[in-house]
Design goal:
Blueprint (H helix, E strand, L loop, with lengths): L1 H24 L13 E3 L4 E2 L8 E7 L10 E9 L8 E7 L3 E5 H12 L6 E12 L13 E2 L3 E6 L9 E5 L12 E3 L6 E8 L7 E5 L8 E4 L5 E2 L7 E2 L4 E8 L4 E7 L1 E4 L1 H4 L5 E3 L1 E3 L4 E8 L3 E7 L6 E4 L5 E3 L5 E3 L3 E8 L7 E6 L1
Parallel strand pairs: 2-9
Antiparallel strand pairs: 1-3, 3-6, 4-5, 4-7, 7-8, 7-9, 10-11, 10-13, 12-17, 13-14, 13-16, 14-15, 17-18, 19-20, 19-23, 21-22, 22-27, 23-24, 23-26, 24-25, 27-28
Length: 359
């Protein structure tokens, strides 16, 4: 009888333990319908002036999120261009339990330029809102609540032109006697470790090797050959290479250590030429002006793009902010038929430019 009682007692303890564990796994359902954060701004429209770079351009404030219990909240400012539905917005982490943020003129202008290509091109509407992340109720805990958001404000902004200092990898090789004295570089337009740019190599150069450096000296990180598609930051790595003299398009990714080098010749293509996208007008490189040039008769009003090597692997189009860029899908408009001088300048990556002048 005693053994039966002992077994019954052990079974009862086990059942209580299991029940307790199951109760521990129960997650509470939190009502977020009362979390209502209202965003206010110091201005309803902005005109940014370079001379006011250090002055506050926009002050934002909002009320604390109320979860009906004590919890830390991380607030993040999101800025987007109108029409993008906040896809890939610019984000600034404001801080924990902080309910205001000031943007000075230079910072806001830089954000708009670097993220959306907006610079000195008239008025654009931007949208701003606050993202809320509830950090959990205990120190070190994380929240299971999805991000919440404040209301959204739309603000028209006029920006000023600015020269952005893009991250660069400097190119050195026999073409410049392994020096860093010239302006041979590729740049990371999105500040993301992806670099691209062009290098002119005169026909007198017969050694087609090079290395990349993150500074204009030999004291920092250099990138050399690992394989035909990968590079190495090891000091003993061999030289990268291109196939011959000419206008070389170089890419490098310092995150996954990939690289490429392609000798290019440039063409104009588009339905403005003859109504098709299959006729290629060759351009000629002028080393004295560092530009590609052609003069041609366009038979139609229509559009154009710039194309390398008569193939759609490397091409230039217009971004949504009308900036010329590699792989951009927008076409260059030609309003009327006629004879045009077309110029393409690729020497200052990623600030590529073009002109189309009627003759």
């Amino acid at each position: 009888m005693t053994k039966i009682i002992q077994r019954f007692y052990l079974l009862l303890v086990a059942l209580i333990t299991i029940t307790s564990c199951k109760k521990d796994e129960i997650k509470s359902v939190i009502d977020t319908s009362t979390v209502d954060v209202k965003l206010t701004a110091s201005a309803t429209s902005l005109t940014l002036i370079k001379e006011d770079s250090t002055k506050t351009a926009l002050s934002l404030s909002w009320n604390e999120a109320n979860f009906n219990y004590k919890a830390d909240v991380t607030y993040t400012l999101q800025i987007a261009k109108t029409g993008t539905s906040f896809y890939n917005p610019a984000e600034i982490t404001v801080g924990v339990n902080t309910t205001s943020y000031d943007l000075n003129t230079y910072s806001l202008n830089s954000i708009l330029y670097q993220n959306f290509g907006i610079s000195g091109n008239g008025s654009f509407d931007i949208r701003v809102k606050i993202s809320l992340l509830q950090n959990g109720t205990n120190a070190g805990s994380t929240s299971s609540i999805d991000d919440l958001y404040s209301d959204t404000l739309t603000i028209p902004v006029n920006t000023f032109d600015m020269e952005v200092s893009y991250p660069k990898l400097w190119i050195t090789g026999p073409f410049n006697n392994w020096s860093f004295t010239d302006q041979a570089f590729i740049a990371s337009q999105n500040f993301d470790g992806n670099y691209a740019g062009f290098l002119y190599v005169p026909s007198a150069v017969t050694d087609y090797t090079f290395k990349l450096s993150d500074a204009q000296d030999w004291d920092h990180t250099q990138y050399g050959y690992a394989t035909n598609t990968t590079m190495s930051s090891n000091a003993s790595a061999g030289n990268l290479w291109y196939s011959g003299a000419g206008y070389v398009y170089i890419t490098a990714n310092t995150n996954n250590l990939t690289w490429s080098a392609t000798v290019t010749n440039w063409y104009v293509v588009g339905d403005a030429i003859d109504g098709t996208w299959t006729t290629f007008i060759p351009m000629t490189y002028d080393p004295t002006t560092s530009t590609w040039i052609t003069t041609t008769t366009l038979k139609n009003s229509g559009s154009l793009k710039f194309l390398a090597n008569q193939a759609w692997n490397i091409f230039l189009g217009l971004s949504s902010s009308n900036q010329l860029g590699i792989g951009e899908q927008g076409n260059i408009s030609v309003p009327n038929a006629g004879t045009y001088k077309i110029t393409l300048d690729l020497h200052n990556a990623p600030n590529y430019t073009y002109t189309i002048e009627k003759q």
